[in-house]
Sequence to fold (96 residues):
Amino acid sequence: MRADEIFMADLSGLSWRTQFNVDFLAHLLIFACWIAWRHRFRPVGFALALLCVLGGSVVSLLDLLTISVDARGRVARLLLGARYAEIAMDSENISK
Fold:
């Protein structure tokens, strides 16, 4: 059996494997949406999102590791990505 056949069979089985697969699929889809949003829905963001869904946790972990090193400890930059500079400039204008 192929992996997709096993996955679909598990989903229709209504067992603990169904819950695990649904949870894992939800994780991958939510992470992919965040990646696409973080890259402002540009083609590179969609490509990374697709890679995260198809590659699973390995690709998601590598992407998260890469962006966390790039953020250098700034959680806002990690979470906001391309939007970070825009928000940082707005907060500087407000404080003046």
